[in-house]
Amino acid sequence: MSTKKKKKQSEQDVYRLPKWLKAIFIIMIAIVLLMGAAIVAIDVYLKIETGNSIVDDINYAREVVDESTEDTFKSSSGTIYYDVNGDVIGSENASGNGTSSTYLSYSEIPEDVVSAFIAIEDPTFWSNNGTSMSGLGRAFLGYIHIMDTDSGGSTITQQVAKNTFLSQEVSIDRKMKEIFMAMYLTNKYSKQDIMEYYVNQVYFANQVYGIEDAAQTYFGVSASELTLSQTAYLAAIPNRPSYYNPLENSSNAIGRRDRILKAMYENGFITESEYEQAIDETIEIVTTEDAEDETSEDSDTSVSTETQKANATSYLLTYAEDCAEKYFADLYGITEDEASTMLAEGGYRIYTSLDPEVAISAQQAVDDTLSFSTSEDDNGYYLIQGAVTVIDNNDGKVIAVVGGRSQESTSTLYGLNRAFQSYRQPGSSIKPLVVYTPALMKGYEISDFETMVWKSDNTTAQNVFKDITPAYGISFLQKMDFAKIVEEDETLAAALGGLTNGVTTVEMASAYSCLSNSGEFVDPTCLTSVLNTEGEELYEESDSYQVYTADAADDMTEILKGVISEPSGTAYSMDWYESSNIEVAGKTGTTNDNKDGWFCGFSSGYTVTVWVGSDDSKAVSGNAGSTYPASIWKDVMLDLVGGEKEE
Known about the structure:
- With 647 residues, the protein is an alpha+beta fold.
- The protein has a domain at 47-289: Penicillin binding protein transpeptidase fold.
- It has 26 helices and eleven strands.
- A hairpin with a 4-residue loop joins β4 (384-392) and β5.
- The termini are far apart.
- The relative contact order is 0.08.
């Protein structure tokens, strides 16, 4: 080769990139092009689905953060529930504002708390711009990954943005706003500020927000007194509050506690000896209620008006939360646990049909009627309990529930709400629903069994049920969405209320309301409006539908009037017509050994169902549909229709 050619080849080699470097360069170009394509795709998707563009989301994020102040994060709004009058029933947390009721400044937050959250939630917190490359990568990789908002990809700053400014809606639009808000937050506030906001607003299950309230609720100590192991345990809960709920199953969070401790050790936040000691520590949940002295058995069992109001409100709130969880689960195609987390993390305004005056009146009726029994179980709750559901027949909405008796000695707030959580055997109160109304649809006449219904004759009920077939009769409960009806219920025993799992007062109220409305069924709920943080309406009423024929339901209503008005009726002792001239219809129900007593009935305007029994399904002396339940029903209905109670 000539000297001239060698020189030319040498010059070309100088400008030739090594193969490995060329490969990296090509990959980088491909990544840039891919991300650019993803941005364009997301922008197009956003415009189609929401009318917004990425630029719109950027501008919105900047505007919201610019207008924020420190107080914005200290009063971040949780999900709030309103009654029929537009007054607040309560919120998803005890303080009513979506943040800890005991707010800690950054200097008051224990170092281990900060380290635990950083180790498990956001290892680059101190250095990142509010987002992480992995989080951004997920945002640009597509909709499927965006939907996975609970997989740990959001930084602490993003979580503050979401909890403060956005709803828990699972969408690309919401995720993009969250990312841009996190960037702007990092520019406006210090990292210490952002950590302070996060620690005080993060959700720890059971309506508990903020590390201080969590420490006091689950361990009976302040945050500054938490052990390292307890700190890591609490830091585990926000990832899946419903699953890691310490009051539901305290062992669920242990595995995640151990991962947090390991991450803290690997990141240099704790020493090896501290790690080993914390891993070996046994976690014992000691709530603030446990830490208080137990009330003595001979304490005053009378109930103050304030206690009744508090309990009535508590039952309304837990029922409203349940209605919202069911609606969100259906709306977004998620589980009720996931819906619960969405709601608990805040931002929604839930308007309901619930009437506190009706609820307090019903609570008083339950408390007064059952006040003869003051025996308590091992948990300090009254042995004999009751539950009530009231429905407005005009629209099928639930307007009140009572989930149990109120008492001074033991707080029932956020406890068992028997109105919708306790499934009990309905006894003969089920007969109109699965036997007689279906039989009328099969060609039976009122005269064929009218007096037998008044007397609640079991033989007639079983004979008719056998004739129409159990499968046919039970199908009507399934049409009305009774949650725990199973194939095994298709037996003759079901004619008398012998069900595998039982029913609730809410379910029975919706079914009896269906009879009162000529067989037209409305799914029971108390929701009337659901607004997200931007004021957008998310709620749509479900359509009503015909379950029983109008003729059959109306004939059944006429028969059930005799249960109360006819001397041979099982509820005639109520003497209703001496107190009111309003026509009512109803049915008693009593199970073996008086374990469960029911009265289900309605006027033209309202349906009321009542259950009385014990939580452990033990016999209750004197309990029958015509006794305690009927007495409660009468008092509640008289208040509703303006009658006079007997003194």
